[in-house]
Amino acid sequence: MRVNLAVKIGKLKLKNPVMVASGTFGYAEEFKGFINLKKLGAIVTKTITLNPRRGNPPARTCETPSGMLNSIGLENPGLEAFLKDKLPFLEKLGIPIIMSIASEDDSREFIELAKRLNKLKAVSALELNISCPNVMGQESLISQDCQATYSIVKSIRRITAKTLITKLSPNVTCISDLAKAAEDAGSDCLALINTLSGMSINTERQSPRLAAVVGGLSGPAIRPVALKMVWEAYNKIKIPIIGMGGIIDTPSALEFFIAGASAISIGTANFINPRVSVEIISGLGKYLKRKKIKDIHSLTGSLIYES
Amino acid sequence: MLQIKAKITSNKKFKGSCWHCIVNAPSLCRASKPGQFLNVRISEGLKPFLRRPFSIHNIFGGKLEILYNVVGEGTRAFSGKKSGDYLDLIGPLGKGFDYVGARGKRVILIAGGIGVAPLLFLSKEIKSRDKLILIGARTRDQVLCEKEFRNSGSDVKISTDDGSRGFSGRVTDLLKNIIATEKAAKGAMQLYACGPGPMLKEVCNIAIANNLQAQVSLEEHMGCGIGACLGCVVKTKNGLKRVCKEGPVFYAKELIW
Predict the structure, then answer these.
(1) Which domain holds residue B33?
(2) Which of A32, A130, A161, B152 has the most CB atoms around its CB within 10 Å?
(3) Is residue B224 within 8 angstroms of chain A, CB to CB?
């Protein structure tokens, strides 16, 4: 039996629904020795800002139960250096490249970035990172406010025909309200979830393990939260969802499809097993065959329960 | 860079909290250079969750050795591995020591505690007959690898913080004394160091004050170990650099402490 793993996200056609999450895969070149990158459904780049960013001081990561905290602070070389040094390698892969973008503190930067990227064929879609919890001095996130989310998505929607993915934060009271705001503003797709805010303390020193004190929690520790948010959003909106948060193997990837995701992203697991993404692609195919499901699309939101 | 499952042929307590593991990994041995490291997946499960970086201690006949201190959950789990178990290894990673320039020169290797780990491999590869190893430890029971260094054809001097063995005081004070008495050889002297942060900072200061070339191997918590996550950066004169990629070995003159 032949199974179909191809999915469509906005205008984007993916040969399979497995991508790698922003910030966990660098600019892909770091992983070329481990897997055939061309097998991936798509690559989401580490977030790029208009100008280079130094990021946060070290220590930037620490392990926590079944997960890790990070506070990188959006370190990146800026748009110009990305286009010159990173994009040519990505372009050659011939798979969809989703560029994650953020603005440091000014929404005009977002618009400038979107305008500049509009012209580039090599960039298949834009992921709006309005949910990074690690920008120091920032009191709240765009994606913690429905109006602010609506407004930024709308203003970028106006100027780009590229597929627009809005990445939301789980650090909110009601994720489906935010999901609806992004959908209403014209987002083609949602990425759920970014990291959960957290902290860890060295008790001997009575000091935080991260220099920035707080950071973003990722890994299997957050999977139940992520799944619930995907499921809640799925029930409220019509646009596709890219599910992520603690996926480490095929069963954990399947959970997200069943909860309502149309595609999934592998994040922190790339650090532990750099081959995990391609292993999951093959695992999904085997599952569909075994369950006699012809199309991965039929798995999305297929949760069976008594309500 | 390779990702392999290597069979453990021995994993034993070496001294105190220090353990010594040998794996069968000919392909890794062929690819490895002194100062490079391995990122080890200790458990198939979630505890510990991330890989742990360990420097390459020695290679010998297709076997690779790791020397590690049991300090936390990850290394405790590592010490529970038995001969015959497999370790999922990624490596060799990072930029190792630059030791070609040390050929024929006066070379001093400075190790603090478990910092002996990458220096044994280095001492074997350096083509110099004029090698001195300074091994620093808190107390005499914690002096590591003295015999191994002597066997590699190096002179060895010991320092202990409590004076229970060798020079009494810090290994960096011993280094200062040696440099002061060897003024003539200064121009050609090369320093290589690995150990705790404050010790490496002091080695860098000594090197800069005496206009000597020094390379130090740093340790940092890592997310990925392959340059993707930007978690293990340190401050250098050329901006933040990744310990896993541009390091773990840095020149004294480039680091900002």
Answers:
(1) 2-93
(2) A130
(3) yes
